[in-house]
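Good morning N.,

You mentioned wanting to compare the apo and holo forms, so I went ahead and generated the holo version with magnesium ion. This is what I fed in:
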Amino acid sequence: MKSQALQQLQLEADLREAIKNQEFQLYYQPIIDLKTNQIAGFEALVRWISPQRGFVSPGEFIPVSEESGLIIPLGEWILLEGCRQLAIWHQKYCQNPPFMLSINLSTRQFSQVNLIECVDQILTETGVDRNCIKLEITESAIMDDVDEAIALLERLKALGIKLSMDDFGTGYSSLSYWHRFPIDTLKVDQSFVRRMDDSQPNTEIVKTIIMLGHNLNMDLVAEGIEAEGNVQTLKNLNCEYGQGYFFSKPLPVTALEDLLNRTLYQS
Ligand code: C2E
Ligand code: MG
Ligand code: MG
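and this is what came out, ligand included:
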């Protein structure tokens, strides 16, 4: 336990340095419109490329950055960088409708006192089309105090942005107040999507989540699509969007632009 605690402390110290030295990069994973098979937008996913540690996965450093509070400066950088990049892509690629960008907001950021002012300032500073920014939150962010969470979500929506519920189906939020959340999109967790073709009950769960979302006027993104069979099943279930390795892994800017140039010029 002692050595594990020391490792955590070292990771925290390295993270602090990494923020100062700007060792982070955003990767972007395409989100596909399942009706048109076109790229509708992306999810920004942070990567830490450390000179000492090499490539560190977000599953390892995001929890430590949340515990230490470092997610606040890191999260601000992620938001700024994502908005800046989307504004550039909007100028470069005149898509109709324009590309959307989903950016993850950690539970700790959600309870940050100046969250609204911070998001508003970044949106203004980058001049990005606010309608095209979607913040992804998880059920754990809204569990503690539902009324307070709804008020905060409404203030975020009032900024002109969109909201998405990530990893839906894995948390503990009660269905009884779901109709009160001003959420635009539900992301069906990859654990359901990936097991869909293995068994009928998993397909039924995905079908039920899609129906719930539609009844609440939300659109749906299925995460973790790895097989072609999943795509057809999701299309039959009227799921609007899909994301997963089957379409593309998260890519750095240059590789993503190569992909856009190839696919956009083909259509
Ligand atoms: P998430 O937000 O649910 O992101 C989706 C994760 O699933 C990403 O992992 C993505 O690379 C992975 N993924 C996408 N398609 C597939 C697939 O077909 N198969 C498999 N096996 N995986 C797939 P990643 O990038 O390692 O991120 C893991 C988690 O770390 C994210 O889950 C999110 O909770 C957190 N995270 C990543 N980037 C950020 C960020 O910028 N800010 C915050 N607050 N959290 C982040
Ligand atoms: Mg996400
Ligand atoms: Mg997710």
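The longest helix spans residues 71-92.

Happy to go through it together on a call whenever suits you.

Best,
F.
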